[in-house]
Design a protein that fits this description.
single chain; HATPase_dom; 2 domains; five-stranded parallel beta sheet; phosphoprotein; 41% helix
Length: 302
Amino acid sequence: MNEARVLVVDDEGLNLEILGEYFESEPSFTLRTADGGEEAWRILRDAGQHFDVVLLDRMMPGLDGIGLLHRIKSDPRLADIPVILQTAANSASEIREGLEAGAYYYLTKPYQRDALFAIVHAALSDAKTRDSLRRRLHEHINSLQFLSRGEFTIRSIEEAGQLASFLAQACPNAETTVLGISELLINAVEHGNLGLSYTEKSQLKREERWQAEIDRRSALPAYRDKRVKVSFERSADRITLRIADEGDGFAWQNYLELSPERVCDPNGRGIALARLMSFANIAYEGCGNVAVATIVTAPHTR
């Protein structure tokens, strides 16, 4: 990964000093610090400054973390920067408030160096994926808005991104819809057909070996012929996507919401974010190997 610029915002000098030492040992990062929300806002508003991720303390005097987060997400130039919230405790209400404000990554104090960099790398990787998906949107023609029905089959993570960007062009709010479609397709490939467990993915992400393991499993005889089947159907007031993999299913009920127990993990937020950002509803059939996502559209007219 290329050098990433990080803005750390914390009103406690000791925390800034510790984080500075952590990042100093990582040459792939350039660090800038701010000791409060207002100072951070001045830095962020400087057109000459660019940041790839913001590490933000939730509890600060004056402009606190949530207040600054609202400002960041309301500014078109800054809105796509991933924000990691640091907090003393992750209650369900705090997570909900953070999600609604636009924070999808969390660290509970005190945390270890490895946990910090696992979340930072996850946020940067997710941002890179989102940028790639959005660029792909422009590769497809606007006539896809007239697509009424379609059947598709994919095998790989790369094909999941290609199909997500294609189908999103047939949906309203393509730039947010593409993220949700991509999450469900990738979930079907990696957890469904390739049998990668939640715990295994967490460890692989921390060790930065996830892609290597995906490539390895994809070549194994037990997995290489498995496919994900996707159907698209437009009705008068909605679009329905049905995504079926050949895996053994999973306890999907545990992943529709971003829970406090998993919020600091480098993975496990995809389905919850897809449901929050992209779809009116996500339901699962059978053992959990079939996802049905609904997008509400304007009333159909001819």
